[in-house]
Specification:
binds (3S,4R)-3-hydroxy-2-oxopiperidin-4-yl beta-D-xylopyranoside, 782 residues, alpha+beta, eight-stranded antiparallel beta sheet, globular
């Protein structure tokens, strides 16, 4: 996690969609564009366009879509749903809003549903209250010109449902309590042979309400600070679990345990071939997307599993009588489409899974792909995956080759050959589905990891579970659970002892849903949390092994990983705060205890041209330090030193001044209005008032400050170089330009806001050096 030395200001960007809420109403956060964020790919009966939905009905029967797996509106009070509907004149198509889902065997049992839309040329509103199939419906005249396309707003205001078209009220019915449960599912209803295009969909509420968009897969798990991931994150390690996204909705404990304990996730099945391409050329990303969204909400990374495997192939493929050329084209399209869909969203992919046989003599695994494409399919798959996303790491993943032995040799030889042929492979996944008697020893695992490291490959333990015998009630003995705890501890320890082992994932979150009882009858209880999400002895021992780990690898600065604090510039000035991004930068996170800043923090030192620089913060992935004021302009060498040793040095450019405006959200300047509130798109500065803007990278000061010390209050330290600022290209007169008193390395300018209303770019110049452009909002005339 990146960390800012300054107060971090987070505001969600405001998106604009049509039609917009009526005066006094605002969008429900996240519901500005429910075509994009509605997860309609999960609902059957809807075709997704780039920014539209199409709902069509066949010859017989209505097509009624209720998006039960997408996000729903949680609305305690008034709300409205805005939709732009387009259809052929005379059609019967509705926006459907559901307050309670069907609860019984008849389709109407318990269903509280409102349909508002066009019915053969009239405007119609009708509802069901859950007690019978009878609809209560009422027609209203349609405003002229709106027979085939309407900007509709359906609002629940007090006890009334009010219908607006193009912003004007056109009808009203009494609400029989359809939404009393405080939730609204989104949907559509289309009459036989009709078709509906939905061009916009959004939800709004009276400003000041706290309605929200909720979905089980958007659950943000409560963090305890003492879970597995907290132990792992101290050294930048990834601890993960295989995820079944259907459990987010069916079991609230699941969504809590996953994000509380783990910082890494892999879909147990959701990204496999049959799930992602259920019919030829038809891709389904719904389940995988839910995992990615959950992970984003919970600060987790995701690995993709898998692109090429002999299992989980759909019968349309295996029974399709395809030629070899067809099969190659199908696989190429599959890889390009699936990797392309998740581009920039995943940490890595298992490109090929289990391509070596399960048994001796560990030859090529019999598979559809081997038969159709020959043994070259493995290299080819990696090349296709790399072409689809050159930045995602690519793994070969297999089972039974975790320690040393014939299987492990076969895996090693396979990947060694790939490396020698220049195939883009980054790592090997060691599955680690083991039991307590046949688990490989820590020394064999370590030896295997070390020889893979010598090939330049990362390793991850990708699917660990340790099955133990269970009785008819699924219970294991205390002795089994203790033996299991020992295996987990030894595998975690072996992984943490090898610097190329950067992650460990268990094959499931809880014993409740593990694949083991189904695939290994008589066995179970293979994971770290029991069926009630209670930690088992294995949890305690795995956590202890994570806690015992230190970073033995040398600090590594990422390419281009030294930038001015909070920005992207690689040029800095004396006194600037600077961020270093990389790996193994510190054994554990540490923040400076006070001012002046220390030059050693948590055992870490950062040198600039060999002299130690003051440190503000260090962690595995980031270090924040100050460029000593004494540093001469020109190229400078930066080096990080930890208890593990000194890393390679990297170069940056020191220049006289390097103004870099701090930003938040969608490139908003970190700026305060005259009343000290944060300037934003909804909190604009008045023309003529004063705005305080914060930046890093001052020029020389009239009242010099010692390196590592906070800027003084009196006398102030001001810029000596000519400084000016523009807002929207118009000069903004400066009242002050210099260091923020009480802060280290923080520059501020106080500018008078010119009369240029709107969201406009601010830019600062110090001497001959120009800053980035960051937006501020200036009020229009009242
Ligand atoms: C398993 C899943 O856990 C099951 O739910 C599914 O029915 C079959 O696949 N090696 C792998 C995983 O790489 O994808 C497998 O997952 C377990 C073995």
């Amino acid at each position: 996690m990146r960390r800012s030395a300054l107060c971090v200001i987070i505001l969600s960007a405001i998106l604009h969609a049509e039609p917009s809420p009526r005066p006094g109403w605002v969008y429900v956060p996240g519901a500005e564009n429910l075509i994009q964020s509605g997860q309609w790919g999960c609902a059957s009966g809807v075709q997704l366009g780039a920014n539209s939905l199409t709902v069509s009905a066949g010859a017989s029967g209505y097509n009624t879509v209720i998006n039960t797996s997408g996000p729903i509106l949680s609305a305690a009070g008034d709300f409205s749903v805005l939709a732009t509907l387009s259809t052929a004149p005379g059609s019967t198509v509705y926006l459907t809003l559901v307050g309670a889902l069907n609860t019984g065997s008849n389709w109407w049992d318990g269903l509280k549903r409102l349909d508002v839309g066009l019915s053969s040329g009239a405007l119609q509103a009708g509802y069901w209250t859950g007690a019978s199939s009878n609809e209560t419906a009422q027609n209203f005249p349609l405003p002229a010109g709106s027979t085939s396309s309407i900007d509709l707003e359906v609002a629940r205001i007090g006890a009334q449902i009010v219908i607006f078209i193009d912003g004007s009220p056109v009808g009203e019915i009494a609400d029989p309590g359809l939404f009393a449960a405080g939730q609204v599912y989104f949907g559509f209803n289309v009459a036989p042979q009709n078709s509906l295009n939905v061009l916009a969909l959004a939800a709004a509420m009276p400003s000041g309400s706290s309605d929200s968009l909720v979905a089980p897969y958007l659950t943000k798990a409560a963090r305890t600070g003492t879970a597995l991931r907290d132990s792992a994150e101290k050294t930048g390690f990834l601890i993960g679990a295989a995820v079944d996204p259907s459990k987010f909705a069916s079991d609230s404990g699941y969504a809590q345990a996953l994000g509380r304990e783990f910082n890494f996730a892999v879909p147990e099945n959701a990204m496999k071939f049959a799930e992602t391409e259920p019919a030829p050329h038809q891709f389904s990303f719904c389940a995988g997307d839910q995992i990615v969204q959950y992970a984003a909400a919970n600060g987790m990374k995701v690995r993709g599993h898998n692109l090429v495997w002999q299992q989980d192939l759909p019968s349309w493929l295996t029974s399709g009588n395809y030629s070899s050329a067809d099969a190659a084209a199908i696989l190429q399209e599959h890889i390009a489409t699936v990797v392309g869909h998740y581009k920039a969203q995943l940490a890595e992919w298992d490109v090929v899974n289990e391509a070596i046989a399960y048994g001796a003599p560990y030859g090529p695994q019999p598979s559809y792909w081997l038969t159709q494409l020959g043994s070259g399919y493995i290299d080819q798959a990696f090349l296709w995956a790399h072409a689809a996303d050159p930045n995602v790491k690519l793994f070969y993943n297999d089972t039974g080759g975790e320690g040393l032995g014939a299987k492990s040799d076969a895996v090693y030889n396979l990947v060694k050959g790939m490396v020698s042929r220049g195939i883009p492979i980054n790592g090997v996944g060691l599955q680690m589905h083991v039991d307590t008697t046949s688990a490989p020893s820590a020394s064999d695992i370590s030896a295997n990891m070390a020889r893979l490291a010598a090939l330049g490959l990362e390793v991850h333990i990708t699917e660990m579970d340790v099955r133990v015998p269970v009785d008819a009630n699924g219970n294991a003995t205390a002795a089994s659970l203790a033996a299991q705890a020992t295996v987990y501890q030894s595998v975690v320890t072996a992984c943490r002892a090898n610097s190329n082992c950067t992650a460990l994932l268990t094959w499931g979150v809880t014993d409740a849903y593990s694949w083991i009882p189904g695939s290994y009858p008589g066995f179970g209880d293979a994971l770290l949390l029991d069926t009630h999400y209670n930690p088992k002895p294995a949890y305690v021992s795995a956590k202890a092994a994570l806690d015992a780990a230190t970073n033995t690898a040398l600090p590594q600065i990422a390419t281009g990983g030294i930038v001015i604090h909070g920005g992207a510039f690689t040029s800095v000035s004396p006194g600037s705060l600077v961020d270093i991004y990389g790996n193994n930068l510190a054994p554990a996170p540490a923040t400076a205890p006070g001012v002046p800043l220390p030059t050693a923090l948590g055992g870490v030192a950062v040198t600039v041209n060999s002299s130690a620089a003051p440190l503000y913060y260090v962690s595995n992935e980031q270090a924040i330090f100050q460029i000593p004021y004494e540093t001469a302009p020109g190229p400078a060498l930066i080096q990080v030193k930890t208890p593990a040793g000194s890393g390679a040095s990297a170069s940056i450019t020191i220049q006289q001044a390097a103004p870099s405006i701090l930003t938040y959200g969608g490139n908003w300047a970190v700026a305060q209005n005259q009343d000290a509130s944060v300037n934003s798109g909804s909190n604009c500065a008045a023309p003529g008032s004063y705005l305080t803007v914060y930046l890093i990278g001052s020029g020389p000061l009239d009242n010099p400050i010692p390196t590592g010390a906070a800027a003084p209050i009196a006398p102030l330290s001001r810029e000596t170089l000519a400084t000016n600022a523009t807002i929207g290209g118009v000069n903004a007169p400066l009242a002050f330009a210099g260091m923020t008193p009480g802060f280290i390395g923080l520059t501020q300018i106080n500018v008078q806001v010119p009369n240029v209303p709107g969201n406009l770019p601010l830019q600062v110049q110090i001497g001959g050096f120009t800053s980035n452009q960051a937006n501020v909002c200036v009020q229009g005339r009242l």
